[in-house]
Amino acid sequence: MPKEKTVAVWYTIDDYLELWEDHYSFQFAKSVVGTDGELTFNVVWQSCALSPSTSIKWTPVYGLNWTLSLPTGGLVVDIGGLWQQCDLGESYDILDTGLWAPSDPSSATCKKDYLNIGNNGFKYGEYLGIHILVGIKNGAGTFDVIYVDPKKIGIGMHASYQPQETCQWWYQAGARTGTMISDIGTKIHQYDMSHSSPKTGKFYVATRYDFATGTWVDQAEEPPRTQLGLIRTAGWNEDINSKELKLLKDKMTQLEQMLSSFLKGNLSSGSKDGDFIGTIIWPQNTAEAVRAEGISAVCQSLKDQGYFTGDEWNQATNASIVTFCLIGSLQPSGISLRDKAIWDDAFATITAGNPRNGGLDRITTHQQTTDPKAQAKAVMNKKLNGYQELINA
């Protein structure tokens, strides 16, 4: 049974922005050994618009077809016949009708580990021959073209093709699925997917393009989830432009460092039964979409680490509040996010003398108690003391 193979594409945010501004798409091609015995890439199998998270997946099931003409670079391959699934070592004839029929597998022209055409009996009008197509099965049950034989086969001729799991990918402007490979944008990267990773045992690779060095970086492990979380949420929102995305990146870098340090300190010291509260004070005039995506990324990062989360936006102080606690403990209950009066009082104190407009607040923690009123009062005192320290800093 053929094994599924995956190429996962990821980015650092700086590289993502550079590629986005150049209107690049991710291009992917598979290779075939043709009648000339050479490993060849000549068709773009997948062309994907730039997205924060892209995965190319396939199971090696191949098919044969034909076309009357060979398109030039950049043009779509025109399919002439019907697809015929063909396993390695099998052989099919093309009848005078252009349809397929099994041929003698014991024939001397049938090669092991190849897709074989035992005999071509088809001729169309004044065309002197046809070009054979090799395709790979897609999720819809049909086939996508991955190779066009540049040489024609005429009446009475045979041919053999061996699909390979060596792949190439690169960035290039435009949607080019099913077109002949033409001009290239970034450096082409080649990778052999015929063997599983010795580290993971999977047919999987995560790859990214380093814009500064012009090189591709591969790894057998899945990419960092917190970084992917940021890119995935921020990159999808059409309301966020490049300048705002860079602002979000800077704020998120601070937040991730602060969250990491805070959680490490509290969890290592055994403070696992508290509710945690973090606040982010955004610069004035920050787009709503930027704030929303930033908070979404923070909450997703916390959920990935096993926390319940909640969030609230306070317009008066341009601040976001995130509450979280470990899954399995009580839900955050020290101060209800719906209790606007308590938050308004707290932020009125912050606004009164805070010279650090647009700064980043610290994360505080409080412990669960059995008395909700006493708990709320203790939390508020602790928060106000923390804010006062921040104001005086």
Topology:
Elements: E1 5-9, H1 13-21, E2 24-33, E3 39-40, E4 46-49, E5 54-58, E6 62-67, E7 84-85, E8 91-94, E9 100-102, E10 115-120, E11 131-137, E12 143-148, E13 159-173, E14 189-192, E15 204-210, E16 215-219, H2 225-236, H3 242-268, E17 274-281, H4 288-304, E18 307-314, E19 319-326, H5 340-353, E20 363-367, H6 372-392
Parallel strand pairs: 1-15, 8-10
Antiparallel strand pairs: 1-5, 2-3, 2-4, 2-13, 6-7, 6-11, 8-9, 10-13, 11-12, 13-14, 15-16, 17-19, 17-20, 18-19
Helix pairs in contact: 1-3, 2-3, 2-4, 3-4, 5-6
**On the 0-100 scale, what is the average pLDDT?**
75
Order of helices and strands: EHEEEEEEEEEEEEEEEHHEHEEHEH
Distance between the termini: 65 Å
Largest sheet: 8 strands, mixed
By helix and strand content, what is the structural category?
A: alpha+beta
The counted number of beta strands is 20
Number of alpha- plus pi-helical segments: 6
Helix content: 25-40%
Describe it for me?
Residues 226-236, 329-372 and 386-393 have low confidence and may be disordered. Strands 2, 3, 4, 8, 9, 10, 13 and 14 form an eight-stranded mixed beta sheet that branches. Strands 5-1-15-16 form a four-stranded mixed beta sheet, with no helix packed on it. The chain has a four-stranded antiparallel beta sheet with strand order 7-6-11-12, with no helix packed on it. α5 packs parallel to α6. It has helices spanning 13-21, 225-236, 242-268, 288-304, 340-353, 372-392; strands at 5-9, 24-33, 39-40, 46-49, 54-58, 62-67, 84-85, 91-94, 100-102, 115-120, 131-137, 143-148, 159-173, 189-192, 204-210, 215-219, 274-281, 307-314, 319-326, 363-367. Helix content is 25%, strand content 31%. The protein is built from six helices and 20 strands. The chain folds into two domains: 5-86 and 123-223, no CATH class; 229-392, no CATH class. By secondary structure, it is α+β, with helices and mostly antiparallel strands.
